[in-house]
Design goal:
This protein is mainly beta. Helices cover 7% and strands 51% of the residues.
Length: 245
């Protein structure tokens, strides 16, 4: 999966640097064109699959782990060549990692975050770990259609900087070792605590698409857990971006 992410980033970089508008054979005088109100991804919603890279066998993610992000962006085109621009913004990002037969004791007082296998004892049938970040994305953007970017090819590379707002586990339907529900299928329990998690994160990002829809990918450069709080692994994600305005 790491190779796939690197391939996505490399492809986006290649396209952003080398793609040219074949119809634009003569140099335009961009100073005479008003681009101040162009629609170029001033609002973005992202949804897709999340994973953790290099997790040990003791950690057992399972199912469709996923993220949901949204950002408000400011887009500043280059005066000499508005095919290129810088996008900067603010927003919220959330990640939901699902597990099977696992209990994560976020309220533990031990030095390392416990990931406990509970397949042979009472446990939750559905279980996830959710983290929520306030984020500031920064993108170097390319669009094949500077006047109406929502009607052309686009690509971007960037970074996003995040601050952890909340971390919690959520379990649903508490069952015994044989799978029989103990308190009803709608029983839910949450535990909230973030002292094991790295409260700041930096992730590399890339997007490639056409018009209002793009394929996006990210790879977290910083550790998910604090130093000494558990194994070293890095979150990654792939998904779709819907953008507009």
């Amino acid at each position: 999966m790491k190779k796939l992410l690197l391939a996505v980033f490399s492809m986006a970089l290649f396209l952003a640097v080398n793609a040219q508008n074949k119809d634009e054979k003569k140099k335009n005088d961009w100073s005479k064109i008003d681009l101040s109100n162009r629609a170029n991804d001033h609002f973005m919603i992202q949804y897709g699959y999340d994973g953790w890279l290099n997790t040990p066998d003791s950690i057992n993610p399972s199912g469709f782990s996923r993220h949901f992000n949204f950002y408000f962006m400011y887009d500043k085109p280059f005066k000499t060549n508005p095919h290129y621009s810088i996008g900067i913004g603010v927003g919220l990002g959330s990640s939901n990692i699902f597990f099977k037969d696992t209990y994560i004791d976020v309220k533990s007082l031990t030095a390392k975050l416990p990931f406990k296998n509970v397949a042979n004892e009472n446990h939750f049938d559905k279980y996830k770990l959710t983290t929520m970040f306030a984020e500031a994305p920064l993108e170097f953007r390319y669009t094949s259609n500077p006047v109406t970017p929502d009607k052309g090819f686009k690509a971007s590379l960037g970074l996003k900087f995040g601050m952890l707002m909340k971390a919690y586990t959520k379990g649903k339907n508490y069952v015994n070792a044989t799978g029989t529900t103990l308190y009803g299928k709608n029983y839910i329990a949450k535990e909230q605590e973030k002292h094991y998690f790295n409260t700041t994160r930096i992730a590399a990002t890339a997007r490639v698409g056409y018009g209002f829809i793009s394929l996006d990918g990210s790879y977290q450069l910083t550790r998910f857990l604090k130093d000494g709080a558990g194994p070293v692994f890095n979150p990654w994600s792939v998904g779709l971006t819907i953008s507009g305005l």
